[in-house]
Amino acid sequence: MNVLHFINAFFSDNAHWHGYDGIPTRLREHIQYSLTALAIAAVIGLPAGLITGHTGRGGNSVAFVATAGRALPSFGLLVLMFVLLGLGLTPVMIPLVVLAVPPILVTTYEAVRSVDPSPVDAARGMGMTESRVLFQVELPVALPLILSGLRSAAIQIVSTATIAAYVSLGGLGRYIVDGLYQRNYEKVVGGATLVAVLALITLGFFWLVARFTVSPGVRRGAL
Question: Per the UniProt record, which residue ranges are transmembrane (predicted)?
Answer without folding.
Answer: 31-50, 62-86, 157-177, 189-210
